[in-house]
């Protein structure tokens, strides 16, 4: 089951147009370690030394290069034919992700730049094109080993260490084009209101000044049946409309809510008219669901939900952070569901939008987590804040996302326990996130040393269920900072305390089989029997503790030197999936 306008490999499934062009594939490529390219005018006279397969970074085998050592400056070029029929329209060049600074030229002319390795960005390249001819797109990507840039699990040293892996440099998600009219939809922010049975559309429209008679229509359907059609006149770039969704499409006057058990999605088609002519047609979808917190519980659609999450870092052997294809994303989601989990904590990575789409379709809950910096500095604050706000807006419409996690384990804010500057930084990010999205919980800072946070999340890699129960026999001591929650970290930073938030254990387990080359948490196990015994003991212990309303196991798959996944890095189960499911659902 998919949404009405689902298009395989379409890179932005929340905002679909029919007229687009995928630019993935072979590009010319070159390293620029001395940073000579711009001064030598490579943007016009580019002589590649390699061929690279976009969107895979040069560090991966899938790119066709597979060189893992760090190179701070890399260049790409591709020649594309722009059809004559596109003349008179706007041609938009999209990058789903480039790490870390991207500079883009078309036919030798600079069209723009973007900083941030995880957020998508676009440029209107119309003025630089020759229609009916081949055009050159040149991209320079600048990366660094700086710990003031959001880098997540990407190493900043020569070799992998602990839980940090080969870096990702340059283009690592899809590059594509689309053609739009002067009058077009720029974005639609979709907000469901379950209690009032309405959905709110916040529109941004391009080209309003150039049209006298501009009208926007929204056509909402559910499982192919009409629900509502609304129309409004456009007289300014930003408008809001609320749509009543009480209907009979799914039985008399029933709400069709989104949940893991029933991931109902409404299709919506937005049609923009100028002087009676269709100027833009965009397909989207939404889920009617509500996340709230009440009396120490997380509620989904006003009903308490026990979250069985698994940590997901989204790495593949041949392609690292880039999914090898859309089928690989679907396979991961299906196996997570088969193991009895109802959600993922997407760890230190902003995932491909197609992953979120399939979570929406299949009903997998998502905690969306920002890639961390690892040094507290004014530059880090600025870079982190700018990119995080971009990401929240870009991911806002996905019903599967139920929690925002800007900070993890005091990474980038190492002195937050006592340092008021770092504490205020997390407070600021919390409130900025709430200003864009007041409807989802925000966690600062996942694992320990919380400041303001809607959920109290604790990380604990104690090895046995008995050990866990001993530690949490006196929860009040942990909640009051009388004792640490995992040997050495306190639950709250100085000056902050427990306010009745829901409590979850959002990292535990990390069990690894015996290995001379990789690592897991605690002692490695020698047999399947030992693995299952330890896994079951920990899971049952957490579920038995009153006031803990969910958990997150570490992790889905092995990642490079970290071999504590329930699956190998090539997605082979270590333990039969039905055994894991039985323990999760017991």
From TrEMBL:
Pfam families: Glyco_hydro_2, Glyco_hydro_2_C, Glyco_hydro_2_N. GO terms for molecular function: hydrolase activity, hydrolyzing O-glycosyl compounds. Keywords: Glycosidase, Hydrolase. It comes from Paenibacillus dendrobii. Residues 185-289 form the Glycoside hydrolase family 2 immunoglobulin-like beta-sandwich domain. This is Glycoside hydrolase family 2. It comes from the Bacteria. Residues 21-141 form the Glycosyl hydrolases family 2 sugar binding domain. GO terms for biological process: carbohydrate metabolic process. Belongs to the glycosyl hydrolase 2 family. Residues 293-581 form the Glycoside hydrolase family 2 catalytic domain. InterPro entries: Beta-gal/glucu_dom_sf, Galactose-bd-like_sf, GH, GH2_Domain-Containing, Glyco_hydro_2_cat, Glyco_hydro_2_N, Ig-like_fold, Ig-like_GH2.
């Amino acid at each position: 089951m998919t949404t009405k306008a689902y298009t395989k490999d379409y890179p932005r499934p929340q905002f679909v147009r029919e007229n687009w062009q995928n630019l993935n594939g072979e590009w010319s490529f070159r390293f620029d370690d001395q940073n000579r390219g711009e001064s030598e005018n490579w943007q016009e006279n580019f002589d590649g030394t390699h061929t690279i397969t976009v969107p895979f970074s040069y560090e991966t085998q899938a790119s066709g290069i597979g060189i893992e050592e760090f190179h701070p400056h890399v260049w790409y070029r591709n020649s594309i034919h722009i059809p004559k029929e596109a003349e008179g329209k706007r041609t938009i060049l999209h990058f789903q992700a480039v790490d870390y600074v991207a500079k883009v030229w078309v036919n030798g002319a600079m069209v723009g730049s973007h900083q941030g390795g995880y957020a998508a960005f676009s440029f209107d390249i119309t003025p630089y094109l020759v229609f009916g001819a081949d055009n050159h797109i040149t991209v320079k990507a600048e990366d660094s080993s700086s710990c003031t840039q959001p880098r997540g699990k990407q190493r900043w040293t020569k070799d992998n260490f602990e839980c940090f892996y080969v870096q990702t440099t340059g283009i690592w998600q899809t590059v594509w084009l689309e053609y739009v009219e002067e009058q077009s939809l720029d974005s639609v922010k979709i907000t469901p209101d379950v209690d009032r049975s309405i959905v709110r559309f916040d529109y941004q429209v391009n080209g309003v000044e150039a049209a006298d008679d501009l009208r926007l229509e929204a056509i909402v359907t559910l499982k192919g049946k009409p629900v509502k059609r609304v129309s409004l006149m456009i007289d300014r770039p930003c408008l809001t409309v609320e749509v009543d969704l009480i209907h009979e499409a799914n039985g008399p006057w029933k709400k069709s809510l989104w949940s893991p058990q029933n991931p109902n999605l409404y299709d919506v088609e937005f049609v923009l008219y100028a002087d009676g002519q269709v100027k833009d047609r965009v397909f989207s979808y939404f889920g009617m669901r509500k996340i709230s917190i009440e009396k120490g519980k997380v509620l989904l659609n006003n009903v308490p939900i026990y979250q069985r999450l698994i940590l997901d870092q989204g790495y593949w052997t041949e392609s690292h952070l880039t999914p090898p294809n859309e089928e690989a994303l679907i396979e991961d989601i299906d196996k997570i569901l088969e193991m009895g989990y109802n959600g993922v904590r997407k760890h230190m990575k902003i995932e491909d939008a197609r992953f979120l789409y399939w979570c929406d379709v299949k009903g997998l809950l998502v905690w969306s987590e920002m890639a961390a910096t690892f040094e507290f500095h004014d530059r880090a604050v600025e870079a982190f804040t700018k990119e995080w706000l971009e990401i929240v807006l870009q991911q806002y419409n996905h019903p599967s996302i139920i929690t925002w996690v800007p900070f993890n384990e005091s990474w980038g804010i190492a002195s937050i326990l006592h340092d008021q500057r770092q504490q205020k930084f997390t407070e600021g990010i919390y409130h900025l996130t709430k200003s864009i999205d007041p409807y989802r919980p925000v966690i600062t800072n996942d694992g320990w040393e919380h400041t303001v946070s809607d959920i109290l999340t604790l990380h604990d890699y104690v090895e046995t269920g008995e050990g866990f129960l001993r530690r949490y026999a006196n929860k009040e001591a942990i909640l009051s900072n009388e004792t640490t929650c995992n040997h050495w970290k306190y639950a709250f930073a100085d000056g902050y305390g427990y306010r009745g938030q829901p409590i979850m254990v959002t990292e535990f387990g990390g069990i690894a089989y015996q290995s001379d080359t990789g690592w897991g948490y605690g002692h490695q196990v020698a047999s399947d029997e030992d693995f299952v015994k330890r896994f079951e003991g920990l899971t049952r212990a957490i579920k038995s503790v009153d006031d803990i309303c969910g958990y997150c196991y570490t992790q889905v798959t092995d990642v490079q030197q970290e071999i504590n996944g329930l699956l190998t890095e090539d997605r082979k189960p270590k333990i039969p999936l039905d055994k894991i499911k039985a323990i999760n659902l017991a």
